[in-house]
Structure formats: structure tokens, C-alpha cells
Amino acid sequence: MTAFDPASLRLYLVLDPDLCGGAEGMIRTTQEALLGGVTFVQLRAPRWKKRAMAECARALLEVTRARGVPLVIDDHADVAFAVNADGVHVGQQDLAVDDCRRLLGAGKIVGLSINTPDEMRRAPVDLVDYVGIGPVFHQTTKRDASPALGLEGLRTIVEASSLPSVAIGGIKTENARAVTATGVDGIAVVSAVCGTRSPRDAAASLRSQIVR
Amino acid sequence: MTAFDPASLRLYLVLDPDLCGGAEGMIRTTQEALLGGVTFVQLRAPRWKKRAMAECARALLEVTRARGVPLVIDDHADVAFAVNADGVHVGQQDLAVDDCRRLLGAGKIVGLSINTPDEMRRAPVDLVDYVGIGPVFHQTTKRDASPALGLEGLRTIVEASSLPSVAIGGIKTENARAVTATGVDGIAVVSAVCGTRSPRDAAASLRSQIVR
């Protein structure tokens, strides 16, 4: 496995094609958000065909690599492989972590979504680089999301984990400081950056609240 | 690339989870249809999560391998890789054929959907094992299908191709003989087998019409 740097999780942007306005919008959002301090990018386009996803991912990689920031693909390890992305992020119903690791190899990032303490206990710690824990608060961008954990629920899972972690779900400037105080390595956002007037300002504002 | 046997395309079953009644139904349909003479199976479940798809594919592989029939996965090369399926089938908007070949290796099957003479001309013949040409007739199971080719349209594409080919789209016992007379190596069916009272009888009836 790579020597994964938990500091790269500090401000984790999940791109949403609808909020950003398609491929062009996601590329522009990424460019701006990187200037605002984003440290990690995930391409998540669950309703897109893979040809379009791969094309967009290749364009995004030019942007992220220029700033040394990782780009992972949500769900589709085959797309990650095809475009030589930095890794894949999978949920509990997606391809198993060991299959992703076998497909992508030791040098790539494999992230896993965690919604409950039990899922955290069952996470294959030797195969996963980081966990995404959430949703912390009520959120609107993920249709099939689990119930919100709240700050105490988040803290319980973080404290039980030895893996680098990023919190997700309803995080914005107003609550970012309280979230990072639970011990997570970073925060992940969708609508707090995607579709905002200035993704750069939005990212900078979030970044200023991260106390770690 | 494998020494792909065009005879395996003779009667090609595309599994539909809705018509078959879920994973159990697809496994039962496959068992019966193989007894009726099906020579190739594709798992196509575009709205399923990959964990469930992989689980179902593993169960299907036990059934198909016992009879020496290939099983390919629609669209998801990563699932095909994870379960060690016999290959993948991709459409024009899915992952590119060269990426699938690179991911799965030379020993696996890569099939490509072709809807127009132009797509046939642009098909990477050195990387593809077979093409699926269609839709021949009006069909109801694929939501985003192209306009029907008709028998003459099919024949034009088949004659322009050096690759093994299977025709798809609205094929049933009544028109199967006319379809095979265009020169294709086989016919692919969905609703002519999935969801019928006896998939075995349905397959045997289709098989009896294949003149090649």
C-alpha cells in the first residue's frame, strides 16, 4: 500500500455534476476550489456513462496533478484503472475493498464509506487507506444516504478507528470547526463548494475553520 | 487475445433481473436455458449496485462453467475482473475497448455493441472478440436503444465486418431464421427467454430456428 498522507484529507471535495453544471463546471469548480485550499478531489457521477466519466476524469487529473492533489473515482474501479486516477472510493454496496485493491494495485488509494460503528469494526484496515464517515448532519446531495450520525456519533466511530478519516454530510463553514474537533483528519463537502458563486472563497472559508 | 470460438455466439442469452425476478430468477433462468441450448450468457443489471452484481455473477459462473458456456458482464469491467468472469460486454458509451482489454488481459472476452455501419468501421478489430449488432427489430427491454436496423441494415453491417457477430433486438422464434440468414454467427435474446414460462423450451425453440 502507498504511504498515504492523512493531511491530504484536510479539505476533501466531492464533485457533483448536477450542482457544478456538467463536466466543464466540475473542471472549473476544481480549478477554483484548489486555489481555495482543497486537498483531495473525488469524482462522483453515479448516473453518467463511463466513457464520459473517463473523459472528464482525464481532464480533472491534469488540474489536480498540477497541484499535487489526489483524484479518486467514486464506485468505478474500472474507470479509475482506465484513466490511471489516484484511486477509488467505494461504499458498502459497491465492489469489495479487496477486489479494488487487487484491481488497482498497492500504489493506489482505496477509500471506504462508513455509516455505523459496526461497519467501522468490519473495515479491512490493512487494505483501506482512509474512511469517509457520515453522514454527520442531514444532507441533500446523496439520495440513498444513511441516517445522520451527529457529532457524538461521529466521534464514537472516529475514536474506534485506527484509519485516517474524513467526515461527510451536511458540513459547512458554520459547523466545520465542531466537526474537526471530533478527531477526524478532515472534512468532505459537496454542496458547500459545488454550485457556489465562488468555489475558491467557499473552500478558503471552510479551510479557515479546520483546526487540525 | 483468446482463440474465441464464434460458435459460442449461436444462442446468446442476456439476463434481465426485472424480467427474471431478481438474482434467484436469473440463476434459475440460466440453468433452464442452458438445458434448452443457450451457448453464451451476459449479466446485464444496469441499476444494480456492484456488490450484489458480483455476488450474482459468482453464482451464475458456477452454473455456466459446469456447462462450458461463457459468462460476460455488461458494462462493468471491474465486476468482471473481481469475479473472474469470462469477459465484459461494452456499448459505445461505456469504457473503451482498449481499456477493457488492458484491465482484463488477453485471455478474456471483450464484446462490443454496434448500432451503425460507421461504428462497425471504427471498431478496433484487433481488441474485440465479437460484436453485438442491433437492434434488429423494435424491442422493449433496453431503454436507451438506437433505432431498429431491420434485416437489410443488419446484413449490411455483418457483410462489412470480419468479426464474429451476434444480432440483438426483438428476436424471437418467428424471425430467428431470417436473422441468422443474414450471416451473423448467432442471435441474442432477452425477453424471448427471460420471464417465459419455460426458459428451457423457449431456448430450444429458438435454437431450432438457427440455420447455421
From TrEMBL, chains A, B:
Enzyme Commission identifier(s): 2.5.1.3
UniProt-listed GO biological process terms: thiamine biosynthetic process; thiamine diphosphate biosynthetic process
A Pfam family recorded for this sequence: TMP-TENI
Binding site for 4-amino-2-methyl-5-(diphosphooxymethyl)pyrimidine: 74, 113, 142
Reaction equation(s) it catalyzes: 2-(2-carboxy-4-methylthiazol-5-yl)ethyl phosphate + 4-amino-2-methyl-5-(diphosphooxymethyl)pyrimidine + 2 H(+) = thiamine phosphate + CO2 + diphosphate; 4-methyl-5-(2-phosphooxyethyl)-thiazole + 4-amino-2-methyl-5-(diphosphooxymethyl)pyrimidine + H(+) = thiamine phosphate + diphosphate; 2-[(2R,5Z)-2-carboxy-4-methylthiazol-5(2H)-ylidene]ethyl phosphate + 4-amino-2-methyl-5-(diphosphooxymethyl)pyrimidine + 2 H(+) = thiamine phosphate + CO2 + diphosphate
GO molecular function ontology, one term from the record: thiamine-phosphate diphosphorylase activity
Enzyme class: transferase
NCBIfam families linked to this entry: thiE
Family of this protein: Belongs to the thiamine-phosphate synthase family.
Protein's name according to its UniProt entry: Thiamine-phosphate synthase
